[in-house]
Amino acid sequence: MLRAQFEEELSKLHNQFYAMGTEVLAQIHNAVRAFVTHDRDMAKEVIESDVVVNEFETKLEKKSLEMIALQQPVSTDLRNVIMVLKASSDVERMGDHATAIAKATIRMKGEERLPTVEEEIRQMGKVVRHMVEDALEVYMSGDDEKAYEVAASDEIIDEMFKKIQAMAVDGIRENPDTVFAGKEYFQVIMYLERIGDYAKNICEWVVYLKTGKIVEL
């Protein structure tokens, strides 16, 4: 494989990864929206779209391993391919968590809810989605300094997690009929918090590409 051909294949890999990330961004948005608006049809669409993300990951993994085997890249080239492999795995897990939120929407049918908690979940979903979007932009630009900034926003998500958890506990104490909803709230915010963690992972892979070092941001 000639140098120009390798770079072209690598560019295609990165673009396919970005397309995968864009699909997952839509999943996250729709999953949270379905949950807080009690839209079971939208939730089902999110669940069905998970197969698209899985197909993206399978294709990216196959092509990445093929490039490693045929080209035997070293240094930055190898790190580039490894970054695609690792980051696509992180994005696929984001999609899994979006699907899990959608499934929670379906389980919540007919249950008594806590509107104030759901509004906070909506806000948390918005922050998480923006972090994922920023992480994808950092991936495409390769801006390792910006990667540190984006990764730091995970602390905001962690604080939102704690706040919503406390609100849900208080709500259940005031109205024990919301205990089932409370259990689902705890699950949903955990999924959102983990999506933030995976976004941070992507930032770490960008730093790895630039420095060759695996760091925890």
Q: What does this protein look like?
A:
By secondary structure, the chain is mostly helical. Helix content is 88%, strand content 0%. The chain is built from seven helices and no strands. The chain has helices at 3-37, 40-71, 75-107, 115-141, 144-152, 154-174, 179-211. The chain is elongated, with a radius of gyration of 19 Å. It starts with a helix and ends in a 6-residue tail after the last helix.
Please write out the topology:
Blueprint: H1 3-37, H2 40-71, H3 75-107, H4 115-141, H5 144-152, H6 154-174, H7 179-211
Helix pairs in contact: 1-2, 1-3, 1-4, 2-3, 3-7, 4-5, 4-6, 4-7, 5-7, 6-7
As residue ranges, the low-confidence spans are none
Question: Helix amount, in percent?
Answer: over 70%
Largest sheet, in brief, is: none
* Mean of residue pLDDT values: 94
Query: Would you tell me the structural class of the helices and strands?
Result: mainly alpha
Rg, rounded, reads 19 Å
Order of helices and strands: HHHHHHH
Shape: elongated
Number of strands: 0
Number of helices: 7
How much of the sequence lies in strands comes to: under 5%
Terminal residue distance: 35 Å
